[in-house]
Amino acid sequence: MNQEINRIYWKCRRGMREIDLLLREFAQEKLPMLDEKDVSIFDSILDYDDQKLFDYIFKNVSLNNPQHESFINNNLKKFTKQGNFWSIYLS
What is the pTM of this model? Predict the structure, then answer.
């Protein structure tokens, strides 16, 4: 599982700064606490390109995948609202 986690950390490195910061901060703080199913879902979400993720997270443009949208809504969007991401992004 440790190699899997390290591979996912690497996949969080992105070209779009906003997405890169959000995914890396989320992974560092929350990934170790996710169960195997959620780790798998998060890994699948990382296969989207940056623009598609940005459009869903910040503009609510559908991904056409309810499971991925639910994970993002319940984890990544709540993570941004808690101030974790924004404190880094705005600094």
Answer: 0.84
Q: Where are the domains of the chain?
A: 2-89
> Coil, strand or helix: which one is 12?
coil
How far is Cα 24 from Cα 20, in angstroms, rounded to an integer? 6
CB contact at 8 A, 45 and 71: yes
pLDDT digits (tens, 9 = 90+) for 1-19: 688 889 999 999 999 998 9
Identify the architecture of domain 2-89 in CATH.
Orthogonal Bundle (1.10)
Residue 83 has pLDDT above 60, yes or no: no
Residue 48's Cβ-count burial label (10 Å; 0-12, 13-18, 19+) is middle
